[in-house]
Amino acid sequence: MRRFLALVRRNCRVYFKDKGVFWPSLISPLILLFLFIAFLGNVYRDSIRGVVEGFEVSDALVESIASGWLVSSLLSVCAVTIAFTASTVMVQDRATGARDDFLVSPVSENLLLLSYFVSVFLVTAAMCFLALGAGFIYMAVAGWHMSAADVFLTVADTLLLILFGTALSSLVCGRLKSQGAVTAIEAIVSAAYGFLCGAYMPLFGLTSWLKNLLMLLPGTYGTGLLHLHLMGGAISAMGEEGIPPALMEGMRRGFDCELEFFSSDVPVWASYLVLAAAGGLLLCVCLAFGLKRRRKE
Questions:
Q1: CA 295 to chain centre
Q2: Phi, psi of 219 (to 5 degrees)
Q3: Residue 244's domain spans which residues?
Q4: How many domains, the chain?
């Protein structure tokens, strides 16, 4: 255990000492939040007003719903993209030969892989919870409608998404051997993941076959959970302003708070199960590849 903790601590220190990687990953969630607010905020506000056209809904409540969507989208993207950035230590060790030096010592392949996994998880969690804190401040200014249970469940959703992102990045980056390769992968993930998981635009508006295809991706369920717990309270508060329950239900579906897969409703517990199982399965596959590679060597 002492050897494992020493490896985790060393990996975290290497990451935080690399200012060229650390500072961009630190400020990128805040920049992304600002860009969401500046460029997408009015789009979602107009969409919400269009849905409730004909009813009197306060601007504060519209702002609260829009802020919940923006923060949930930010977290769902950061939980995966930052994990890929944090995995650069694993690739650097492989490129410089440091990984081989570790394996010459009394350190097993799986212990080394687990140390990378835990360090990536911790680094990603630190960055994501910084973004979550900034998001909560923004939501408090816009209009707070979250209960204590919603806050707790949002934290749980974020941790599960970080687990999934860490497992996915560990599996992908564990096969890479150069810094250029991991940079290319980061660029692809950063560009595509937000669209694939339903963070940038709701799945509800997509064609049926495309929506069902994207529902095969575990990250989509995590995004849906964040939408539910960050927006659900504000949507429910619309009932106090005279919005019919049927319209509120339509908004939950329209903003992916309630997901459908082949026209069947996806319960909340199933979303948690899919996300947790995907993270665990990816970790097991990563360890299996590591053991296979060690036997070949």
A1: 34
A2: -60, -25
A3: 2-296
A4: 1
Residue 180 has pLDDT above 80, yes or no: no
What is the distance between the alpha carbons of residues 142 and 66, in angstroms, rounded to a whole number? Answer: 9
Give, in degrees to the nearest 5, the angle at Cα 278 between 277 and 281. 80
Beta strands 264-265 and 260-261 are antiparallel
Torsion of CA 110, 112, 117, 121, to 10 degrees: 140
Return the amino acid letter for 101: D
Rounded Cα gap, residues 246 and 244, in angstroms? 5
CB 189 within 8 A of CB 80: yes
Instruction: Kindly report, residue by residue over 23-35, the tens digit of the pLDDT.
Output: 777 777 777 777 7
Say whether pLDDT at 297 is over 60: no
Which residues, at least 6 apart from 221, have a Cβ–Cβ distance to it below 8 Å? 215, 259, 266, 270, 271, 272, 274, 275
Separation CA 133–CA 33 (nearest Å): 12
* Mean pLDDT (whole number) for 227-253: 85
pLDDT in tens, 55-88: 777 888 888 888 888 899 889 988 998 888 888 8
| pTM score, whole prediction | 0.89
Among candidate residues 283, 247, 53, the one with its CA nearest the CA of residue 169: 283
